[in-house]
């Protein structure tokens, strides 16, 4: 009992020692927190625009941004955000692991935003998945420059990223038609309309509804036109919309699963003064100081010592917040890719076999038939495991969701199929109906996304020992 009391004392002291002066600020700060991910083909202008937003909203000055851009280039990184994150987290990094998904914060009068980095290079698609998995809204950047738009769409990553975004659960896209300042474009309405029409066709095929799921904004990351302030009538007389940031502010409130069970997929962890901190987005439920929770899989019981983001400390982290969470009762070695913070009563299922609906999009040329025993890498939230198809249950009509043919022997690209999937190691997954964010996955083979899926049945849960 004594030991327990001592421990409690220690925790109380630690919590009291935390600078909680801005908790009251937080209570008054009812501004919604929104996670953004930039997606699109390499060189479309994602870094330039996200950097410009940081300057225009007063987060960093243009000299500092230029310094980050230089450093990123010198280190052969794709984005200034890496250099920025590396710099701001120097101390943390010295103690712990590397940062996999860069993030930066900015705010407007209406909302607080976090930018999650998603590099556009082909090899980085798995990173795009862990960044995009936490995003509420995607900004799909396309270059309007002659030849660049075409290259990004035909065989480029523009559409692959949009498809991934849809599958991962991003409900809304803002399509930023960038580089409108380019001499080959020069704010041409005809070029803008042509791009909008082509992208609309593709996004419809990805399952986005043109009436409500996406909208277009012309702009230039390079000159800042239409990024924070709406572009002038002199430059773009035909523009009827508002700037990129104003468009973000005007998006309807995001749906949050506040009453759901606590789930925080851990995307990064590090040790600071002996305390393990994890980073992640609260996908459902809420998390409170002092709360006892599990790290799954593994069922390690931990206590919440601190909750913060770049600008303040919280007593309670609500759904949608991107947090840094100090934990007691764990060593950072115990955290691995795919770990999730879970409520104790309503535990996240840990499974090795699932029933899923899988959409086949890009089976490799030498393996065009998707059959039982097919093997691939399974990516869900931050988890990556090998998997094998156990059996095909039925082909699915993609529009209605109805089962067409029972027990087919194979399926091909473009088809949708219900199948049983066996995972090489246990993964935290939920059924689509109970928590869509933790049900979505992609299948990959030799650096290519070959299929998307969602878990419809978690089947038998893995029994875990306490
Ligand atoms: P990312 O790969 O999508 O992050 O693209 P970057 O932001 O690195 O931009 C790629 C190139 O396009 C760089 O040389 C930028 O200077 C250039 N660029 C980005 N935005 C614009 C723009 O609005 N206008 C013009 N003319 N060039 C741009």
From TrEMBL:
Gene Ontology molecular function: any one: GTP binding
Domain Tr-type G, first and last residues per copy: 31-258
Subcellular location: Cytoplasm
Superkingdom of origin: Eukaryota
Keyword Nucleotide-binding included in the entry's annotation: yes
Keywords on record: Cytoplasm, GTP-binding, Nucleotide-binding
UniProt GO cellular component terms: cytoplasm
Family to which the UniProt record says this protein belongs: Belongs to the TRAFAC class translation factor GTPase superfamily. Classic translation factor GTPase family. EF-Tu/EF-1A subfamily.
Protein name: Eukaryotic release factor 3
Source species of the chain: Heterostelium pallidum (strain ATCC 26659 / Pp 5 / PN500) (Cellular slime mold)
Lineage, broadest ranks: Eukaryota, Amoebozoa, Evosea, Eumycetozoa, Dictyostelia
Gene responsible for this protein: eRF3
Residues of the full protein shown: 87 to 552 of 562
């Amino acid at each position: 009992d004594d030991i327990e009391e001592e421990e409690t004392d220690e925790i109380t002291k630690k919590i009291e020692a935390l600078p909680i002066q801005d908790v009251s600020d937080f209570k008054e700060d009812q501004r919604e927190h929104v996670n953004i991910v930039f997606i699109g083909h390499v060189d479309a202008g994602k870094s330039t625009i996200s950097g410009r937003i940081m300057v225009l909203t007063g987060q960093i000055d243009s000299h500092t941004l230029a310094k980050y851009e230089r450093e990123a280039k010198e280190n052969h990184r794709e984005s200034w955000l890496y250099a920025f994150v590396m710099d701001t987290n120097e101390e943390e990094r010295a103690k712990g692991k590397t940062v996999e998904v860069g993030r930066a914060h900015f705010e407007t009068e209406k909302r607080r935003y976090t930018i999650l980095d998603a590099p556009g290079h082909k090899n980085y698609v798995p990173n795009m998945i862990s960044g995009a998995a936490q995003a509420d809204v995607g900004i799909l950047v396309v270059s309007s420059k002659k030849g660049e738009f075409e290259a990004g769409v035909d065989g480029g990553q523009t559409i692959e990223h949009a498809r991934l975004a849809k599958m991962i659960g991003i409900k809304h896209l803002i399509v930023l038609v960038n580089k409108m300042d380019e001499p080959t474009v020069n704010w041409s309405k005809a070029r803008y309309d042509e791009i909008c029409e082509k992208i609309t066709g593709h996004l419809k095929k990805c399952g986005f509804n043109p009436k409500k799921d996406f909208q277009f904004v012309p702009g230039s990351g390079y000159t800042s036109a239409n990024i924070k302030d709406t572009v002038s009538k002199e430059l773009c007389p035909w523009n009827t919309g508002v700037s990129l940031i104003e468009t973000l502010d005007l998006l309807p409130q995001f749906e949050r699963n506040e009453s759901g069970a606590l789930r925080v997929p851990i995307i990064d962890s590090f040790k600071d003064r002996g305390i393990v901190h994890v980073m992640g987005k609260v996908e459902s439920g809420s998390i409170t100081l002092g709360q006892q929770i599990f790290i799954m899989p593994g069922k390690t019981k931990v206590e919440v010592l601190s909750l913060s983001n770049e600008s303040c400390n919280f007593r309670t982290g609500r759904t949608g917040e991107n947090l840094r969470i100090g934990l007691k009762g764990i060593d950072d070695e115990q955290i691995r890719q795919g770990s999730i913070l879970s409520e104790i009563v309503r535990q996240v299922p840990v499974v090795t076999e699932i029933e899923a609906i899988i959409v086949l999009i890009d089976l490799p040329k030498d393996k065009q038939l998707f059959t039982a025993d097919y093997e691939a890498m399974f990516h869900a939230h931050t988890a990556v495991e090998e998997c094998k198809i156990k059996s095909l249950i039925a082909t699915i009509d993609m529009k209605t969701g109805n089962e067409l043919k029972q027990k087919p022997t194979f399926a091909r690209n473009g088809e949708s199929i219900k199948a049983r999937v066996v995972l090489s190691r246990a993964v935290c997954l939920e059924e689509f109906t109970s928590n869509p964010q933790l049900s979505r996955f992609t299948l990959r083979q030799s650096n290519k996304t070959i299929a998307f899926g969602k878990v419809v049945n978690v089947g038998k849960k893995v029994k875990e020992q306490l």
